[in-house]
Amino acid sequence: MIEVTGSIRLDESELDFEFVRSSGPGGQNVNKVATAVRLRFDVRRSPSLPDDVRARLLALAGRRASEDGVLTIRAERHRTQQANRRDAVERLVELVRRAAAPPKKRRATRPSAASRERRLESKRRLSRRKGDRGRPEPDSD
After folding, report:
1. Closest by alpha carbon to 85, among 22, 4, 19, 1?
2. 113 CB contacts (<8 Å, ≥6 apart)?
3. What would the 3-class secondary structure string for 93-139 be?
4. Which CATH number fits domain 2-100: 3.30.160.20, 3.40.1000.10, 3.30.70.1650, 1.20.120.530?
5. pLDDT by residue (tens digit) across 49-108?
6. Which end of the chain has a smaller Cβ tally under 10 Å, C or N?
7. Is the pTM for the entire model greater than 0.70?
8. With contact defined as beta carbons under 8 Å apart, do 32 and 77 qualify?
9. Could you report the per-residue pLDDT of 33-52, keeping only the tens digit for each?
10. What is the pLDDT of residue 110?
11. CA–CA–CA angle 58, 59, 61 (5° rounding)
12. What's 14's DSSP letter?
């Protein structure tokens, strides 16, 4: 079990790891050894996540989540499978932790009288400036 928060724990059997070749420099080793990790986690079908956390996690994941709700994390920063695997799990845990934090309620506020007056004054200044750009009035002699 991977502890994310006090109430959320992910079962390791829910994580699917696939090892692939890394991109980038590494000499001949990069062509022989599959050190990069592709971690898949089915967010929609996970029994470990409450519904509100599930929805926020899919929103946070963005393009990393597929249409059917599978989150994919690719880790290839390190040169070993174990380090990349650990990195992928840590990134997943951090993402779930961020999704578990409930969003702050927005408090409706009003702009102050001074800020409203500054805004209107700025609009008047801009209007005068643009008005001065017009065609000059013909002289009536």
Report:
1. 19
2. none
3. HHHHHHHHCCCCCCCCCCCCHHHHHHHHHHHHHHHHHHHCCCCCCCC
4. 3.30.160.20
5. 888 888 888 888 788 877 887 888 888 888 777 888 888 888 888 888 888 888 889 899
6. C
7. no
8. no
9. 777 888 888 877 877 788 88
10. 94
11. 65
12. G
Structure-token pair, residue 92: 């997943």
Strand partners for 9: 3
Residue type, 15: L
Measured N-to-C along each axis, helices 51-61 and 81-100 cross at an angle, to the nearest 10 degrees, of 120
